[in-house]
Amino acid sequence: LPRLPRLPRLPRLPRLPSSPRSSSTSSSTSSFTPSALPSTPSIPASRPARRAPTCTVAPPAPPVSGATPESAAAGAVGEFVDRDDIRNIAIIAHVDHGKTTLVDALLSEAKVFRENEAVQERVMDSNDLERERGITILAKNAAVEYNGVKVNIVDTPGHADFGGEVERVLNMVDAALLVVDAVEGPKPQTRFVLKKAIALGLKVLVVVNKIDRPASRPEYVIDKTFDLFMELGASDWQIDFPIVYTSATKKLSGPEPDQLQENFLCLLDTIITLPKPKVIPDAPLRLLVSNVDYDEFKGRMAIGRILSGDIAKSQQILICHPDKEDKKAKIVDLFAFSNLGRKQVDNAGAGDIVMLSGMNDADIGDTICAVDFPNPLPPLVVEEPTVRMTFSVNTSEFAGREGKYVTSRNIRDRLMKELDKNIALRVADTESADTFEVSGRGALHLTVLIETMRREGYEIMIGAPSVIMKKVDGERHEPFENVEVEVNEEYMGAVVDLLGRRKGMMTGMGSCNTEGVCSVTYTVPTRGLLGIKNSILTATRGTAVMNTIFDGYHKYAGDLPVKENGSLLAYESGKVTTYAIEAAQTRGRLMVKPQEEVYKNQVVGVHQRSGDLALNICKTKQLTNFRAAGNDKSAGVQGLLELSLDDAIEYISNDEVVEVTPKSIRIMKKTAEKGGSKRS
């Protein structure tokens, strides 16, 4: 159906002439004549079709007054001027829409790599954990030179659990590249990141990526993106967004889907037209710390954008915060970003994104000011966490065998260190000195921290995840999330049943596409989503794709159904035998392999019924004259469950914990009930 025409903005009425208080109202209004009104433009009969801009350099529209990041420097004395030689942009998108691959193509087009250099895929994802999971976890900086302009690029995470990285990075840039899949269109995380960019008054360049896919539908994607801008309350300047169509893997770009070129010059030309940094060069120094890093040789380093003034190496500065005492410091080294690395510089000006060493007392949200001008900026504010877990000292029988850091002091110091750079994380002490309560934006947010600590050599016990409740007007409220599930039509009934049993409310159901894939959206309590991933994958034979985004706090939805299956526990400590597995696997699915060491009350499998069951998983054959011990063979062992860290945390109940060591992941019952467990 054709879109309804958008009415033009009505002209503002002229101000009435001022008159003294003694004059009557009629006399003041009599001087007003209709001829003072400007002529009203005619309303078009139909809305003109939206077209992508050409790739010629054109002056950008003026930014929204008071909404850009530079407006934070309003307390400084001086006038704003544009820096023509810099563009600061952030790349934002839903997970797996091609942000990091797009950065690879931009770096390649800017001749960052040699022609004969072997370049790995997703070069910005330098973390091992990011490469294994295929997602971006930490925001990273890069810079390229194009036509005499330095383009600072910030790659951001796409998963909702790492939204804190996106929120703090957007304070350093003047514009954003919103990457949208040419088939899927805007997704839940697209709404989240775009909402943050619009709230900061950033100009957004829409990049329709993966345009080479056979099922691409660019017109549908642009219409959906336009509707999303309208829903989020974007200004007219932001709604008139430029569009570039790309294929990052094939390095194609163009102003129209049928005008693609075998290079990324079109995208780079359009980036140059984005707003320039507005700075106050003659004002005192002010820099908001947006990120911190650590170097083994240079120590703690602060990263941020200079909002006003200049900064130089060996300069004396002041670290300020509205809620802290001012601290003096000296800049030991000053770095600017260049290509994929950084280079040492002697000075930098307003609008540059720099890295400073010697900032041992600087935290994210602090302001680096001139010594004679202690005027801190408002600190960064991010959304509160919604999920929490307990981190405690490993108390199992195998404690201390595999890890390097096992004491509560080691765990506490590591968590406090994480708080310095993970602003969405919260750590609190509990009644026990060996247990800490860690809160984050989601289960994945905390799982990545656990996996990182595990690889660093820590041994910890992890409790079951739980949601953070709030009291609103005396009533209990809990966090809810918007869930979008894409699944084949034949499995739609199973998905609807699973989400409905977990107190989910259906908010929409889309029609199926040509491939038979349908989408359904729900609003579900966050605690209802804990442990649902494996259930949905099992019910849909691994074909479902689920995306979630935080919706807000609503009234408590009621009790959820309990876990249907209990756990199989080890009756005694020892080595698992094939003989015992063959007899025990009729009770459920096992998680342990032959010759693996287990301890008493360790969870060794999933019971096929409700309730827990203790098994003698270490039982051996009787050695008699009629029976030889022989070599155990695994011919009769059925398929065993292999649980990853995410699976183990999703599986456990409130009376279970996950033992995490550098080499093993085990599940243990907290306490054994006297006479409560049955023995087989």
Strand portion, in percent?
Answer: 25-35%
How far apart lie the N and C ends?
Answer: 66 Å
Walk across the major sheet and give the strand order. Answer: 14-13-19-10-11-18-15-16
Mean pLDDT value: 79
What are the SSEs and their pairings?
Layout: H1 25-30, E1 81-82, E2 86-93, H2 99-109, H3 128-133, E3 140-146, E4 149-155, H4 163-169, E5 175-181, H5 188-199, E6 203-209, H6 218-231, H7 236-239, E7 243-247, E8 252-254, H8 265-272, E9 278-279, E10 286-295, E11 299-308, E12 311-312, E13 316-320, E14 327-330, E15 334-338, E16 341-344, E17 347-348, E18 353-357, E19 367-370, E20 387-393, H9 408-419, E21 426-429, E22 435-440, H10 443-455, E23 460-463, E24 466-467, E25 470-472, E26 475-488, H11 492-501, E27 505-509, E28 517-525, H12 526-529, H13 533-539, E29 545-555, E30 567-570, E31 574-575, H14 578-584, E32 588-590, E33 597-598, E34 603-607, E35 613-615, H15 645-651, E36 656-660, E37 665-669, E38 678-679
Parallel strand pairs: 2-4, 2-5, 5-6, 6-7, 30-35, 35-38
Antiparallel strand pairs: 1-9, 3-4, 7-8, 10-11, 10-19, 11-18, 12-17, 13-14, 13-19, 15-16, 15-18, 20-22, 20-23, 20-24, 21-22, 23-36, 25-26, 26-28, 26-29, 27-28, 30-34, 31-33, 32-34, 36-37
In short:
The protein has 680 residues and is α+β, with helices and mostly antiparallel strands.
What does this structure look like?
This protein has 680 residues and is of the alpha+beta class. It is 19% helix and 29% strand. It contains 15 helices and 38 strands. The strands form 8 sheets. An 8-stranded antiparallel sheet has the order 14-13-19-10-11-18-15-16, with no helix packed on it. 40% of the residues are buried. Residues 16-76 and 672-680 have low confidence and may be disordered.
